[in-house]
User: What shape does this take?
Amino acid sequence: MATRKAKSGAAVLWGVLLVAAPVFAQEASSPDPEKILSSLHFKTGEVALGGGVAKVALPAGYGYLDPADSKKVIVDLWGNPPEVADCLGIVAPTSVSLADPGHWAVVFDWSEEGYVKDDDAEKINFDDLLKQMQAAVKEHNAERVKQGYDPVELLGWAVAPRYDRASHKLYWAKKLKFGDSEHVTLNYCIRALGRRGVLEMNVVGSLDQLDDIVRATPELLGMVDFLQGQRYVDFNPSTDKVAAYGLAALVAGAVAAKAGLLKGLWLLILAAKKFIIIGAIALVAFFRKAIGRIFTRSQGPTTMPPPS
Assistant: This one.
């Protein structure tokens, strides 16, 4: 594990919480993988998400698990606590078992925080943003160590942020290192902007699978779309809520700081099992302070204002 309170291991981050907040580990049980896998019902074709917000048109070779089956995977197969298992579903390649160490999957979730303006897309210097994020992480490592956790190093982009203005989809990946561990953590995120919020697609895999994930990214981007009336272009400025952040904040993680989202999860691969590490509730204010400074320094009013 990335902290002193658990062992080291290659890791994948799931969610929008950054490394500024200390975390704690949840030990996994020893389930019967074959029994769990045999109980799952993969769906193919077109599947609705979020009670009619969006849809997934699954190409050949992919399957969808509904929230109930996804919970079986997250809790029973991957050994995570049930209180963090709520999601819209999981999409995964069907050629590799979800119990196989070489598999990867996409966990879907929905954040109804309002319409995210993309007018700052061409203004963002993501190299500068990365430097600001690295400085924020480094600045707060002293607090992590004080809390009993290893320091974190944000190594850089595994995939630099890219925004497709036509489809209103944003994706990026970060590389991080915990303490003296030789393992590098992959944080791969895809965000689809809609009329009332953001559809979150968080890839669960290992850094060794980055090439496979990058190759699959066009398919992942293309399989998801909002339903009529929920699309980005359906926004009504007279009636609809506007989010208090922009694209830079989505990448930096300030969405979690603004909304107090404790569903941002840390997924770690350790001994071929996945563990979810939950951000400590008492340290939300600390996280807000860390991310807020990024935007007070340079982002200005085109992105999210510093969280109070």
In short: The CA atoms of residues 98 and 104 lie 7 Å apart.
